[in-house]
Design a protein that fits this description.
Elements lengths: L5 H8 L5 H18 L1 H10 L6 H26 L7 H12 L1 H10 L4 H19 L34
């Protein structure tokens, strides 16, 4: 994983001050890493079901990647007045959008080009962050008018009204 160039990419990301630019650049950097490490990722992914120490192998293969996303998530949350998620949830969401599984699903399993997958993952992450941070309003969705809910305690999301009580 050291050949992925993730340290240089993270250093570039951590100086950005616009959350949208940060997410777009993260998508480009993770595309570059996933595209460049494609054969390694595929070999590991295919070996996991039969490998005696699959969990350890996966951790070795993705540990630095997750740490890099953790650093980027902390920076992204610091740039956002009202982060879309808790710090740990931001890490999970970045892993969902930027980790090898997301890229693999779109590019390997569904036949998308790397460029198309990058655009989609970037737009999706930006839209989610803006929508849940209250900066965008989805048509037909009633805005939550009270204090911002805690996304860790309240899985309904910021734009969902509280459940009806009887």
């Amino acid at each position: 994983m050291t050949a992925s160039g993730h340290e240089e990419a993270v250093a570039r990301l951590l100086v950005l001050t616009d959350p949208r630019e940060l997410v777009r650049e993260l998508a480009a950097a993770t595309r570059h890493g996933n595209e460049g490490q494609f054969l390694v990722h595929e070999a590991i992914r295919k070996a996991l079901p039969a490998h005696e120490q699959a969990e350890e192998l996966w951790e070795r293969a993705t540990g630095e990647y997750r740490k890099a996303l953790r650093d980027v998530a902390a920076h992204l949350d610091a740039l956002t007045a009202r982060p879309a998620a808790s710090g740990e949830e931001t890490v999970h969401l970045l892993w969902f959008w930027s980790g090898p599984s997301g890229w693999g699903t779109l590019v390997v399993e569904d036949g998308w080009s790397w460029e198309r997958a990058e655009r989609f993952l970037s737009r999706t992450a930006i839209a989610h962050a803006l929508l849940t941070a209250g900066r965008l309003h989805a048509p037909g969705v009633r805005r939550h008018s009270g204090p911002a809910p805690d996304p860790v305690r309240d899985r309904r999301g910021a734009d969902c009204p509280p459940p009806a009580t009887s």
